[in-house]
Amino acid sequence: MLNFLSKDIGIDLGTANTLIYVKGKGIVLREPSVVACSKYDRKILAVGYDAKEMIGKTPDSIRAIYPLKEGVISDFQMTYAMIKIFFQKVLKASAFTKPRVVACVPAGVTGVERRAVEDAIMQSGAKEVFIVEESLAAAIGAGLPVMEPKGSMILDIGGGTSECAVVSLGAVVTSQTIRIAGNTFDEYIMEYVKQKHNLIIGDKTAEDIKIKLGTVSNLVGANERLEIKGRDNISSLPRSIEITSAEIVEALSEPIDNIIDALKVTLEETPPELAGDIVTGGITISGGGAMLKGLDVVLSERTSLPVYIANEPLDCVAKGTGMLLEEIDTLKMVQNAARRRFY
Prior knowledge:
This protein is of the alpha+beta class. The protein has 2 domains: 2-137 and 316-342, ATPase, nucleotide binding domain (Nucleotidyltransferase, domain 5); 144-309, Nucleotidyltransferase, domain 5, CATH 3.30.420. The protein has helices at 2-5, 49-52, 76-90, 111-123, 134-141, 182-197, 203-213, 245-251, 253-268, 272-281, 295-303, 316-326, 328-342, and strands spanning 8-13, 17-22, 26-32, 35-38, 44-47, 62-65, 68-69, 72-73, 100-105, 128-133, 152-157, 162-168, 171-178, 199-200, 225-232, 238-244, 283-286, 307-309. The strands form 5 sheets. Strands 3-2-1-9-10 form a 5-stranded mixed beta sheet, sandwiched between helices. It is flat and about 60 Å long.
């Protein structure tokens, strides 16, 4: 009876965004992983979209922060508070509805970082927590045949980390995690605009440029333009400029090269039989980074492999946790594999 009354949920606890999947309902929450709090007593003032609107606009007495950095918890108290509020939005408070939770962590995290995620979720009201690797959940959500005895390759580019992995028989065979992803792209755009145009822009403007002009190939969407506003680096006065998507190709060349290098290292470490499967099945890209125009073209040129963008790439990890919830035996097998890997 207690299991019947409980709610099982999957959570994609991302550096940039948090998605929650409720068993039987699908994805029911999608909010920025941002918390606004008082600087002096750390009282929570806003979470999610409301908090993100405050970034760069708060007085000294208020801080708007991302409590996760590069895929791991950097502020435990704020992460715990954020998860608890998100849980309250999707679950009715009741002693009989403590959820069983599937949550994801990057493959490259330490045991301490993994336990921090588990503890934060338990303290937020979970009955039981299953931790799985983010790349495995992304591969499941992308529809790859991860339970079969064949190699499937996933490249998940999130907000804080990019993870390349080869999965087979329900487990990660080899992987590379680098802390270069969507937030890094924003930083490179900010630095490029400052160096090239002597204009200082904020995080939100850089993210807006990435979303509207983001491309990594001069052959795909490189003729678009966007007017942006900021503060002149010399006069300190406000002004606006026009930036082109061709400039974004140049701005993002270095981080994209780093991701490709990690991808190649993963391929080099892949067992020969599984490598043969990847020649046929190719590479699937998920996460927000998959939205960069021309990324599949560039990766295919640099690896000589077919490259595909997953359907609904932003939702793959959350959908993967939901599919694991639907298959409890699979979930337990994945959990046991993860424990052997981390412990």
